[in-house]
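Students often ask what a holo structure prediction actually looks like on paper. The answer is less mysterious than it sounds. You provide the chain, you provide the ligand, and the output is a string of discrete structure tokens encoding the 3D arrangement of the protein together with iron/sulfur cluster.
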Amino acid sequence: MPGRDRAPKRGKDGRIVFTRRMKREYTLLMPQMLPVTFTMMKKVFELYGYKVDMLTSSHRGIIDTGLRYVHNDTCYPALLVIGQLIEAVNSGQYDKRKVALLITQTGGGCRASNYIHLLRRALRRADLDYIPVVSVNLSGLERNPGFSLSVPIIRRLAAVMIYGDLLMWLGNQCKPYETVPGTTEKLTAHWTDTLVTLLGTGRGLSKKDIGCRMSEITADYARIERAPSRLRRIGVVGEIYVKYAPLGNNDLEELLLAEGCEPVVPGLTDFMIFKVNNRVTDVDLYCGSKLKKLVAGAFQRYIESLQRVMIEAVKTRPEFTPMGSFADLRACVKGYLGYGNKMGEGWLLAAEMIELIHSGVSGIVCAQPFGCLPNHVAGKGMIRKLKDDFPHSNIVAVDYDPGATRINQENRIKLMLSNCRDHRDARPAAQQPSGEETMLSGGSR
Ligand code: SF4
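The corresponding structure tokens follow.
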């Protein structure tokens, strides 16, 4: 009957199914992780007829809401994301009967695959269990007739991931040096809109097109007027959510900029390839479906080919340090961690630290959420070994949890930054690169 709410349809597993009608009528609320990439992802979903709102709220109330509905010893990213979603639903900004919640499921062995169940439990406890929760995954974990990741959407999301990495990578090399404040952000916003418009018309998707767009983007960033000074380059690694999300890491990038540093943040593409590569590794190490290995291998090669296009585009401009490839990362962790170490960020986390050391950063922040065992092993647990092998390495593990105060986190980071200078001063003059403060002289990855 028009105007009357129908009871939400439940699937065999008891969950509310997101139907085609809901696609037309509901607003999907999605958490934000990487600001630039997720802004484009939201717009890609809109291109396909979804109404999407990306949550950018950031205040203590989110943690308190998370603590109210999620057990306090669960992963901190889950607590934040669930707190933020429930907070938004209760904010009065939305019709509670016309919203659905988007959440990713990695499909791996870590708890990120189960955040969705924690969210549903939290909704039940908050008397909001009539709200559909939609899983975003590539593993066929949960299906909904009103939401599907079709091949065209996946291609656009893959392109957005690569473009997003490029914008973030170049932005981080321009923003700390820009002579007119705000220029980099304006250019990033311009390209964010332009790329989504292009993707909507079916352009900017082929490898050739991506290459052309990336050359244009790189040339545009190279035109930003920058001061000639060289700041301390500080790497950021860690669990994916607290590494990227300003809500998760208390605006770490802004803190580094305010402290006069250039943030060096490895992109999302390596993480995606890592996740796909794990399917191949599983079959190699433990046997399994050869077909699965074949499909995963083909998808990995596709994303790696896009990554190569991005690297080549950056290499054309000498003013920028290019990012490395997934193959470089995989090679550099050999002898440190086995490729079967794949829970959470697994071997990738250690590989990123090693690569950053080789690229000559002055220090590294390893962002660790509360409740995250795998990343404490592959992150914090590796710091001693790296210190032994690279005596000038300067890595600080920073814990992010509901009880940690921002001031405490900032103090730890500032102490690490002050050690950057100590490192430089402690080294013999011959070992000190001129004009730049580095942990270890070496080429870029
Ligand atoms: S990587 Fe850590 S924070 Fe993420 S799901 Fe696994 S245990 Fe939780």
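The chain has a mean pLDDT of 90.
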